[in-house]
Amino acid sequence: MAKFSSLKISSQSARTWVIFACLSLAFSGCQVLSNAPQLTPLVTAVGTPPALSPGQAQTQMAIHSTATALPTATDWPIATPTNQIEQTPTKIVPLSPLTGVPILEEEILLQRPVLVKLANWPRDLRPSNQIINADIVFEYYNGHQTNHLLALFYTSDASAVGPLAPGRLVDARLARHYRADLVVASAPTIVEGVFENTLPDRVFYRGFTPCPGICTETQEQGGNTVVDTAAIREIAIEDRGSRSAPRYPELSFSRFPFSWDEDATRFSCLYADFSVMDWRYDPISGKYQLWQEVEDEKGDLRLALSYDRDSGQPIAFENLVFAFANYIEYNTSTYDINLREGDPNQQALFLRDGKMIFGTWYSPSETEPFAFFANGQAYSFKPGKTWITFTSTVSQPVRIQEGEWDLEFKLR
User: Fold this and answer.
1) From the centroid of its chain, how far is CA 409?
2) Which of 23, 31, 85, 240 is deepest in the core (most CB within 10 A)?
3) Is 307 helix (H, G, I), strand (E, B) or coil?
4) CA-to-CA distance for 254 and 86, rounded, in angstroms?
5) Domain membership of residue 281 as a residue range
6) CATH number of domain containing 365
7) What is the pLDDT of residues 320-366, one digit of tens each?
8) 34 pLDDT more than 50
9) What one-character DSSP code corresponds to residue 346?
10) In the prediction, which pLDDT does 319 show?
């Protein structure tokens, strides 16, 4: 039986923001978490800054203060890679630049991406619905030892992705980088101001966007708010005029990994002993499957495979990325991430096919998508979908045993 200790987490780009960074240590191969304690709010070594009044917070975001420079990163320990020969088939159909898989029509690349904010907490909102349809899912820390998700739909769509969650500062950053429309349930006043300044006419709210764009289900259906991404695109064109679409640079893809540094058949990210994202490689599907904590009849917590609600399929992705970033904490529920545009030396971990490689990530500017590198070259993703977790720069992966890793999320 595994026991886990509680953790706590403690830069900025557009004119209205502020910044923060996160990560987590997971657990070993045990699947049972018994009698998880009720954890108190995080306490960092230097102390959490006092909560800001709305006026103070708005002022700090408006002045676009410069984030504290990070210390020089320690080089990753790089093991001798094992090379494999790649046989590249002739490209005869258009491929998605984000997934490397064939698309039915090249006109799909002319549509604007849609980012949908999804809740992973409270636990009774689970399971997620149609999240496995997304090209990319972003995960980041949201305070109180919990996380939020942001799903990107570009060459794919979902008819009822949910549950829809409130917007946060990080969502505005990611929407700018991927030049996407953003769908949220609501937003705090300060965050809404950021959306208005940085994403004019690109944010869609529950209560202001008609169904089938944003719909609330009946209790028999589940009672959650869900989003039809194709309908959002149609509403955007009809109500907000012409929508120019980005032409993303293609990520690099390969059917087989050319090299790797470590085996990684299990990688656990721990926000707290009651908040776990546990990824396990399934050699049959060639994907990492998501296991999360569930509560049994006795109130004890155990890990169980997470399934997509409608399809009943496991929530699974071909690629995992853990991007080490600098978080900024304004209070226990207001965070931002300094994405350090133009800095190519930010560390990352890449997982595919049960293997892990140490690399780097960055974005050239505030309006360009992220690029990923390993061994001095563009990292080659496995064709398929990618889950990207933003973790903190002070968190480090720990090998529990061969092929199994824990990553504890902490701010300092």
Assistant:
1) 14
2) 23
3) strand
4) 7
5) 1-412
6) 3.50.90.10
7) 999 999 999 998 889 999 999 999 999 999 999 999 999 999 999 99
8) no
9) E
10) 98
